[in-house]
Design brief:
Distance between the termini: 41 Å
CATH class of one domain: Alpha Beta
Number of helices: 12
Low-confidence stretches: 9-30, 37-47, 275-281
Strand content: 25-35%
CATH architecture of one domain: 3-Layer(aba) Sandwich
Helix content: 10-25%
Strand order of the largest sheet: 1-5-4-6-7-14-13
Shape: globular
Number of strands: 28
Length: 498
């Protein structure tokens, strides 16, 4: 057995760019999230220093099918960034590891795991440990593989030669800090796997999931379908690795929802009374083609729209889930993705198409449009059908906004910052700050809790203010804090017991 040790260094809180949030008052997927070190919190409380992380490399897995140096370095750096000491184990069997000495194990690309190894892993998890696995770990084990045992009900297969991108396909602790619909280029998937059913992170082209979180007999288990070092976006790779480690360490993870009051989706509608020819012409003029939208602030057409008074523009959805905030000549400009039903659709076919489009947008937490040309909508009974669909989506909790309202919200929410601090094993402190110049109403922060939450109660907060709205999920895996109104320049914090 051989072990190397990497020590954590003290330093400022490391920022995690915000992702999606779902609470009760408002959120966006532009903003900043900070996670204060759980280790520093425990030290302030005079608690025993946390146990280190262990990165495992079995001798039989070294070589072509084992972890690359870049992946090992990423896990070491990610553990240190979380305030943990990191040790590396090189040996013949997991049974050689003193299980109680480590808070979590990382098994990167450990394809060959014996029955003895899995028994040792089970014993370690039963003692309160957590584990992160990557790629085809345990794939070469005889009989039912390690991943199939740890994630019962999931099926694993090779993603095929095609997928070279990952996509955030839903909310979850693993993708906290990444925007819904965000795509990640993968240089070379290597010996990767895809899982079915998919979770919050998927391979491009609906070929399966690229990451899973779960509990195995009460112990946290995280899996990434590839080495995160193969992801082209280094910041996103570090974020995924950190989120997986936090889950295995049973540490809370903070995420910001995209829409006010934690609404699951934004529905774009025409402004009230916008039926005049001028209103319709204005709506048509503030539009960008897909290619111009891809050019961002460098687009000549976008700058022309801004000069003509447009503060926002509709752009073809084409894989986009969320609006994009652009700086055009020092002014904020919002590009809003908008897709439409087929003009040939009508009757029950149109109803199915509208609901299917919304459900896809809801899974991503993005934008869905119910805007349509007035004459087309009025023909063949479509107007009544659109009204019925709108009533259904309101009942599902969607946030309805016209383009100006949506752009105002997105601009205000973009600057909001949130920070999570672990105060004790059963309580956290959530801070909101709004350094911008506009009020942000309904900012929502979701806190994922690997060990679950029994309740959600406010312990302390600012005096002479209305209390935030608290919410707990039906499965008790997350709590949400909704700040009803965050004024420009304001900063507030709440301590929540769970």
């Amino acid at each position: 057995m051989r072990a190397a040790r990497y020590q954590a260094r003290s330093g400022p809180v490391a920022p995690l760019v915000f992702g999606a949030v779902l609470l009760v008052v408002a959120g966006a997927t532009l903003g900043t999230v900070h996670h204060a070190s759980a280790r520093r919190a425990e030290e302030r409380m005079a608690v025993v220093a946390p146990r280190p992380l262990l990165v495992v490399e079995l001798a039989r897995n070294q070589g072509a099918h084992g972890p690359e140096d870049a992946e090992l370095a990423l896990w070491n750096a990610s553990g240190v960034a979380l305030g943990r000491d990191v040790e590396r184990f090189v040996g013949a069997s997991l049974a050689e590891i003193p299980a109680r000495a480590y808070a979590a194990w990382v098994l990167p690309a450990q394809e060959g795991l014996s029955a003895e190894d899995f028994a040792a892993l089970e014993s370690y998890l039963a003692l309160g440990g957590g584990v992160v696995l990557t790629g085809r770990t345990g794939r070469d084990a005889p009989g039912r593989g390690t991943l199939a045992k740890l994630f019962p009900g999931a099926r694993f297969a090779e993603p095929g030669p095609g997928p070279t991108r990952l996509r955030v396909v839903g909310p979850g602790a693993l993708v906290a800090g990444l925007a819904p619909g965000h795509e990640l280029e993968v240089g070379a998937p290597g010996r990767a796997l895809a899982a079915s059913p998919s979770d919050a992170l998927g391979w491009d082209g609906d070929t399966g999931g690229a990451g899973l979180l779960g509990l195995y007999r009460g112990a946290p288990v995280a899996w990434l379908g590839l080495a995160p070092s193969h992801i082209g976006d280094a910041d996103a790779a570090r974020r995924l690795a950190a989120n997986a480690l936090r889950f295995a360490l049973r540490e809370p993870v903070l995420d910001l929802r995209a829409w006010p009051e934690g609404r699951p989706c934004a529905v774009l509608v025409d402004a009230p009374g916008a039926a005049s020819a001028k209103d319709e012409q204005d709506a048509k003029s503030c539009r960008l083609s897909a290619s111009e939208a891809d050019a961002g602030a460098a687009s000549a057409e976008l700058r022309k729209l801004a000069r003509n008074g447009c503060r926002f523009a509709a752009v073809p959805a084409q894989g986009r889930a969320l609006p994009e905030l652009l700086d055009v000549g020092g002014a904020a400009f919002v590009a809003i993705p908008e897709g439409h039903a087929r003009r040939s659709a009508r009757g029950s076919a149109l109803m199915r198409e509208l609901l299917a489009g919304y459900e896809k947008a809801e899974r991503l937490g993005g934008v869905y449009s119910l805007r349509a040309d007035a004459r087309w909508r009025a023909a063949k009974g479509r107007d009544r059908l659109y009204t019925r669909v709108g009533d259904e989506l309101r009942a599902r909790g969607a946030w309805f906004a016209d383009a100006a309202e949506l752009a105002d919200w997105w601009s205000a929410r973009a600057g909001v910052r949130a920070e999570l601090e672990v105060v004790a094993r059963d309580r956290v402190r959530v801070r909101f700050a709004n350094p911008g110049s506009a009020e942000a109403r309904g900012v929502t922060a979701r806190v994922y809790l690997p060990d679950g939450a029994a309740t959600a109660q406010l312990v302390a907060g600012p005096a002479l203010r209305s209390a935030p709205l608290l919410r707990i999920s039906a499965d008790h895996t997350w709590i949400e804090v909704v700040e009803r109104s965050l004024d420009p320049g304001a900063e507030v914090s709440y301590t929540i017991r769970f």
